[in-house]
Fold this protein.
Amino acid sequence: MASVTAVRGSRRKRMSPAGSRLVPYVFVAPFVVLFIVFLIAPIGVAIANSLFSQQAAGLGFGGVERVFVGLDNYVRALQDHEFVVGFGRVLLYGVVQIPVMMIVAAALALLFDTGLVRGSRFFQFAVFLPYAVPGVIAALLWGFLYQPSVSPLVGGLSALGIDADFLAPGMVLWSIANVATWSTVGINMIILFAALQGVPREMYEAARIDGAGELRIALSIKIPMIAPAVLLTTLSSIIGTLQLFNEPQVLKSITSNIPSDYTPNMAVYAASTLDRNPNLASAMAVVLGLATLVVSVVVLRLTRRRNGVSDGV
Amino acid sequence: MTAKMLYPTRRVARFGAIALAAAVLVSCSSGSDDESDTTDEAGGGTTTLEYWGWVPGMEDLVATWNEANPDVQVEFHRMTGDDGEKVEAAVDAGSGPDIVQLSSDVLTDYVINDRVQDISEFVGDDESNYTPSSWKAVSVADGVYGLPQGVGPAAMMYRSDIFAAHGIEVPTTWDDYLAAARALHAADPNVVIANLSPTEAAQWQVEVHQNGASLYGTEGDSWKVSVNGAESKEVAQRWQTLLDEGLISTVPMWTPEYWAAVNEGRIATIIQAAWFPALLEENAADTAGNWQVAPMPSKDGQPAAGDTGGSIVVVLRGAENPEAAATFISWLDGSDETQAPLIEDGGLFPSTLNGLESDSLYQPQPFFANQVINEVYADAVQSEPDTWSAGPNFATAFQAIADEFSKVVTGQQTYADALDKAQEATVADLESRGLSVAD
């Protein structure tokens, strides 16, 4: 021990240029290693897997061979009608759910920021609380509220003369959206609220002197000032939407109106576990990853052009 | 990433683990048995077998075995939830157990992917103690890949109070069944004769099996898929009539919604396997005394039953000592000593002849107004057609059926259409694996 300290001490005094050039790499190494092992390597394995197929012959009892099939799995994935429809479904879902969720989150954040709400700490906590409930549990809870025989919600609506079927084929997508919105409004509200806290208060005073009302301040000053936070939350919501899995997968167990390939992510899961075809599932996963990337980049480009927000993203 | 590539790694790891265990054991063991197996040389005659299963009470049976067989020690791991899918990954990665319990439906897939060992040389003599259909479930392509542990003969549970209240006879033929369905629904619009869950294809499987069909067959060196065969279409026609006339409900099974309907007496009959009565009792305790069990209705009133498939216990690819594993399974599933615990604690319906003769099988059930219900199920075993055979992508076929049936209950297509689409999906999946499929 003593000698190590001594060596380190003496080295520090005459650190060679080579040594100092090495230091940044040492600091960056842990991240790079984890990044490669847990992100780059799995993507590489998935891409490699997607180019192969397990092939047997005849009845199959002669053994299974791993064969290079090029892009065959991709062709099959894209020819899979339900898989492609799944993308359309999550896009439709996103176009409706994300704006609704963002508007609710932003409205709540602005409301809390005005300081007009009594007991705002309590209400902030109440809005945030659902986020602390894991997605699977949230879906289970709402699942009970959607089933007519056990749901006080359906019972109450029917007492009012409203015949609600939350699990009907056309309705179930919005029931899923409701669960997701309930779960994520809180965290997005907190992020936007934190951003609002960073806006210099003098700007509001200046606006008030110029005769702006609270609504005008909210729309013309607050929202533009927190645009980067809005973009961040929107982007992560879009990614979450394309990867929609927990809620529909859980609700699938209580309704027959959610098939096993309802969303792209569920289709990937079904291909790998139910159909026992990890190669096809890898191809589907790569397609899903690419789609997510493309949508994210497009959204970034569009907003950057419009808002001039480019830094940091 | 084949099992073969990784096999040596597993061998090394396993060897290390056993050597370690041996170092502990050697001090108290005399090292009596001297077998040729490398593991045993290192282990001083002690083999350790890892066994994964889900049957209740298995811990006690394994303890009994371990006490009587100091040189073949079994370690039991209770499977829950998605462990079934974990087994395949574990075997392929070379870290699977030696012995595992499986649904008989998936065995063909395991054989094709080289995940199980042929143990016919060790268990050939056991055949005479098993029912022919259960033995068929472990026999794939000239090999015997395990031993049966329970079967799923089906019968009809019915609400005797509801039938009595409306003065309706309990149906014995499918024609009577349809008539009873109409009479029940006319007498009380809240009551349906059955809930045909689109997501739980077991009842469909049972009725198709009863009708002498099978999802799969072979023709020479090709698979023959009959998801939409004539026998299946006949069942589909019956279901379509029931659905079109609004005589059934279509709530997904196992949901709170389903059990609420059962508890409220909105479902008059349930056609399900011998393992279902225990679940019914557990989930609808308040309806005790109102249920009875009768044979499934059939075309002509003659006894004919279907089966939901049973479970089997197999020796996996990585097992170092298949003979010891086979000996243990042979004792566990077939010996006189284990039959009563498997029936009473495990809730299994026996696939063995000595099990079918066991007194513990024929106890009156208070929930069923003290009827000896297993007499009905034992008769069902005898009357099952010998036609059902498993195929290579059973899970895919069943998922396709469930997905397509779901569109039937929302009125998007008919049961017949659904079967055609499921057939197409099943064939396409087989072909994508390079397997040949007969037209």
Remarks:
- The domain at 47-151+309-361 of chain B is CATH 3.40.190.10 (D-Maltodextrin-Binding Protein; domain 2).
- Residues 57 and 345 of chain B are 5 Å apart (CA to CA).
- The longest strand of chain B covers residues 47-53.
- Residues 3-25 of chain B form the longest helix (23 residues).
